[in-house]
Design brief:
Elements lengths: L16 H8 L22 H5 L1 H6 L12 H15 L7 H14 L8 H17 L2 H4 L2 H13 L9 H7 L16 H14 L12 H16 L6 H17 L7 H15 L4
Helix pairs in contact: 1-10, 4-5, 4-6, 6-8, 6-13, 8-11, 10-11, 11-13
Length: about 280
């Protein structure tokens, strides 16, 4: 449940959550500005750092360390993952590049919740989904939903917890005095911002979807990002145990694709501390 007031006006250039709720309620008929106003040019980097066979193999490895590379190279590697997964027909690569740049520009300079972290979660999700065969089960739009949700799962993270924001939200981040979520305050903000950037008039990676497809894609991305809410951890353990029980009875049974995508990003998010 959400409560908005008409005067919600977040500081610091952060998009109004109430405005985002309105924009995301239906497929946009006119393009709004949700991405950072000015995006840099796509960075030029040493081709060897991006296109070498070693770099591509590392994108499927659980030993990849993104902190050893500059963020410009990570932008190219993020693009490599999107392209390798197979972009939906009609989605221009230039739009995906602008999407990546907008995500990087929207990440705050936090010690942990920064662009390096969201790239790491995207890369680990890519490796997990490939190793488990999940990626092969998905169609092109589902693969885009999985990887883009991983990249956006902490979009505009302020570096503090939802519990902290719920207590002091009127003076800290995003105008949350005027936007009251019952739970998962940060995750819902990340999901709203992710879709806002995707439908930005200068990015528009969802322009090829009709109304029904848009709702399906939006729901999938939102559920994946909300799965990273640690308060839901016990629920997902229960889902895994239930699946394991079904698998024990019928080894051929496959996990629901949406649940699998949620688990991929959730596991990638919490795996960082052991990598």
């Amino acid at each position: 449940k959400v409560v908005c007031s008409k005067d919600a006006s977040p500081p610091g250039g952060i998009q109004s959550p109430c405005r985002l709720l309105t924009d995301m309620a239906h497929p946009p008929t006119t393009r709004q500005r949700s991405a950072p106003a000015v995006l840099p040019e796509w960075p030029a980097v040493d081709d060897a750092a991006v296109s070498s066979a070693m770099a591509k193999r590392q994108l499927l490895s659980f030993d990849f360390d993104p902190t050893a590379l500059p963020s410009d190279v990570l932008c190219h590697l993020a693009m490599e993952m999107f392209v390798s997964a197979g972009l939906p027909a009609g989605l221009a690569e230039d739009r995906v590049r602008r999407f990546i740049l907008a995500v990087r520009a929207s990440m705050l300079d936090n010690p942990y919740h920064n662009f390096y972290h969201v790239f790491d979660v995207m890369q680990t999700t890519n490796a997990l989904a490939t190793a488990t065969g999940t990626m092969a089960r998905l169609d092109s739009w589902e693969r885009l939903a999985l990887l883009s949700a991983a990249l956006c799962h902490d979009l505009e993270h302020p570096g503090v917890t939802s519990q902290f924001l719920s207590k002091v939200g009127d003076s800290t981040y995003g105008g949350y005095k005027n936007l009251v979520f019952r739970d998962a305050l940060l995750e819902k903000h990340h999901a709203l911002r992710a879709l806002g950037v995707m439908v930005d008039r200068d990015i528009g990676i969802l322009d090829g979807l009709d109304s029904g497809e848009y709702y399906q894609f939006r729901g999938s991305v939102s559920k994946i990002i909300l799965a990273t809410d640690i308060s839901k951890h016990k629920d997902y353990l229960g889902d895994l145990q239930a699946f394991a029980a079904r698998r024990a009875e019928d080894p051929a049974v496959e996990m629901d694709k949406q649940l699998a995508m949620e688990l991929m990003v959730k596991c990638a998010d919490v795996s960082n501390v052991i990598k």
